[in-house]
Amino acid sequence: MDVKDILLWRDVKVSAVVFVSGFVLLVCLTQFSVVSVITNTALICLAPMLALRLLLTARSAFLKSEFEHPLKVYLSKDIEVSKDKADLVGEKVAEIAVCLTSKLKRLFLVEDLSESLKLLIVLYILSYVAQWFSGITLTFIAFVGAFTVPKVYDIYHGEIDSCIAKINQAIEDMTGKITSKVPMVKGKEIPTPDDQNSEDNDKKTS
């Protein structure tokens, strides 16, 4: 099961476990520091395993039997990543990084005026959102939205696509009106020496 299946609640039990675990973790982060949450979570995970190990060790010593680790099956499994898979992941990450950098370069150097204006509007809205919400609150909202928005879109994708198309059309019309009012200066072409000589010959001929 991949991330998409979890976010779309393909398996309700798995998605519920992931959602509740993440929700509780974020609630803890709003009340306590990150270090406290990490250390206490590690203690909660370690304490039962340590108690189980000590109990089974004492039981084996009392019965004078050979001790066998109850989680031997999981300990025997090797955690490894194949070189091909690592190379594939590295290529994907590099491709995304290059694409993102190129996109940001075009936006911030204003290659397309309408696209840069859209970015300006989005950044302006985000600057106000940042004043209203803290980083952990935005993370909280993003986490809950990740488990609700994709599912809602999966059910009502037709109606949502229609609304998004209308919004995009309105934005295109607005940016089109703005760009039409911005004077576009065309740069003059610098004449080359050959063009200058040809122009002088034409003058002499005339």
UniProtKB/TrEMBL annotation:
The lineage of its organism: Eukaryota, Metazoa, Cnidaria, Anthozoa, Hexacorallia. It is found in: Endoplasmic reticulum membrane. Its main location: endoplasmic reticulum. It is a multi-pass membrane protein. InterPro entries: Reticulon (IPR003388), RTN1-4 (IPR046964). Keywords: Endoplasmic reticulum, Membrane, Transmembrane, Transmembrane helix. Gene3D superfamilies: 1.20.5.2480. Pfam families: Reticulon. Residues 3-206 form the Reticulon domain. It comes from the Eukaryota. Residues 186-206 are annotated as: Disordered. The chain crosses the membrane at residues 12-32, 38-56, 121-147. The keyword Manganese does not apply. This is Reticulon-like protein.
